[in-house]
Amino acid sequence: MSTIEGLRARVRGPVIGPGDDGYDEHRTVYNAMHDRRPAVIVRCADAADVIAAVHHARENDLDLAVRGGGHSVPGFGTCTGGVVVDLSPMRYVSVDPVKRTARAGGGATWGDFDHATHGFGLATTGGIISTTGVGGLTLGGGIGYLTRGLGLSIDNLLSADVVTADGRQVTASDYQNEDLFWALRGGGGNFGVVTAFEFELHECDTIVGGPLFYEVDDAEAVLQLYREYIDGAPEQLGCFFAWQIAPPLPFVPEDRVGDLFCAMVTCWNGPLDKAEAVMKPLRDVAEVKAEHVGPMPYPALNGAFDGLVPPGLQHYWKADFVTELSDDAIAAHIEHGMKTPVVNSTMHLYPINGAVHRVGPDETAFGHRDKKFAAVIAGMWPDPADNEANTQWVRDYYAAIHPHSGSDGGYINFMAEDDAHRTEANFGRNYGRLAQVKAAWDPDNLFHLNQNIEPGSR
Ligand SMILES: Cc1cc2nc3c(=O)[nH]c(=O)nc-3n(C[C@H](O)[C@H](O)[C@H](O)COP(=O)(O)OP(=O)(O)OC[C@H]3O[C@@H](n4cnc5c(N)ncnc54)[C@H](O)[C@@H]3O)c2cc1C
């Protein structure tokens, strides 16, 4: 039996229990709905600390939560009564500009990553908010501004160092532990603790991007244009549809602050002088009422919306993959998008075509390669008094669009706590093989605080 004192003697990083300084700070996750009290939080300094924490959880038969950036909406990065492997001290990023690769610690955020790679005019696909963890986002797939041109984050993953359920560290890549590498790319946190990610990098320096705001009365035209345009638009264009209550920012006319708009958020990672022509259809579809589109360093766009989603909000999300955006779906979006409750809440419709479709649905664990969009209704708000009403807004919106999605599953990284019953559909065609890999690498399901795949033989 391993004790907390024994664990302290074995690890370099702080080991924090109830009553210790920093306990409340370090048990807190991004979604303020989760007020959980772990038995111990291990702030891991390195892979050896992770190994010690994994042994401690197993030997004491305790729940094990793994935390990268802490953004999980269901609060998978914490637990009550168990061990939290907090990777946030492991956030180094080192770049090899000759090979065009980067290695990131398991607790790095996309802000850490983009900052380090931007110094070399390079990047890879990450998320749209800089505080999200590289860890959780990548293991679920990874959708962002660069997806259409560069694929999902996992399509750029070259290798991962993994601490497994039996407390060993292995490397997974196309050449070693190939089954594990396959499963890590879309299988979520089911297979071990990734202490280091190695990514391929691509040229991405100054981009032309930012949001275009239109009147909500133009939402039908904007959505109709978007569904056609995104099929053939150059792949260096990332863009997504959003509902957005206008925040008090310099580009918003003062008398429109607080009004609801629909928006296209853009990111052109191609020749700067081609941006205007590429985005012309987005400008011509309806009058642009406010905008903040222009050349900027890629990390600036990645951090541009951080202020809308500070830590400590209440979160309730629902999501679907979408095969095609029908007229009926557009009508449902408009009916419910018009009721967007607060400035932090939104619905985003991300394209997952282009380079994503050039990877086969069996090549990685991310099986929904035939879908055109990933939709997420992201309910986010500051006041717990609004929990019931705003959760209901998300549920009603989802109930209205789901029949038109053409898919049972949604992106695992956008799922809420009460969507565990959808796990099999979320992994889709690859669930059976994932269950086999799970049985091989984590037969006792030590890593179960995630979109959980039960070890199986199917
Ligand atoms: C504000 C916000 C914006 C977002 N934007 C995007 C976006 O643009 N694109 C997108 O694809 N997703 C996005 N997401 C969803 C995001 O991908 C998921 O919430 C993801 O799980 C967050 O990863 P994390 O490391 O921050 O979270 P955590 O809560 O730390 O972890 C989430 C899950 O991943 C596991 N995990 C994390 N790191 C590791 C690791 N190193 N090794 C093993 N398991 C690990 C955890 O155990 C847990 O199960 C966003 C979420 C939020 C809240």
How can the largest sheet be summarized?
Answer: 8 strands, antiparallel
Record field, number of beta strands:
19
Class of secondary structure makeup? alpha+beta
Gross morphology is globular
- Count of alpha and pi helical runs: 14
Q: Tell me the domain tally.
A: 3
CA-to-CA gap between the ends? 35 Å
CATH architecture of the largest domain: 3-Layer(aba) Sandwich
Rounded to the nearest angstrom, the radius of gyration is 21 Å
Per the CATH scheme, the topology name of the largest domain is: Vanillyl-alcohol Oxidase, Chain A, domain 3
Low-confidence stretches: none
Average pLDDT level: 97
Residue share in helix: 25-40%
Strand content: 15-25%
- CATH top level label of the largest domain: Alpha Beta
What bound compounds does this protein have?
flavin-adenine dinucleotide
Protein model, in words:
This protein has 3 domains: 83 residues, Uridine Diphospho-n-acetylenolpyruvylglucosamine Reductase, domain 2 (2-Layer Sandwich), CATH 3.30.43; 111 residues, 2-Layer Sandwich (Uridine Diphospho-n-acetylenolpyruvylglucosamine Reductase, domain 3); 215 residues, 3-Layer(aba) Sandwich (Vanillyl-alcohol Oxidase, Chain A, domain 3). Helix content is 27%, strand content 23%. Strands 12, 13, 14, 15, 16, 17, 18 and 19 form an 8-stranded antiparallel sheet that branches. The model has no long low-confidence stretch (mean pLDDT 97). The site of flavin-adenine dinucleotide (FAD) has 34 residues, from strand 3, helix 5 and strand 10.
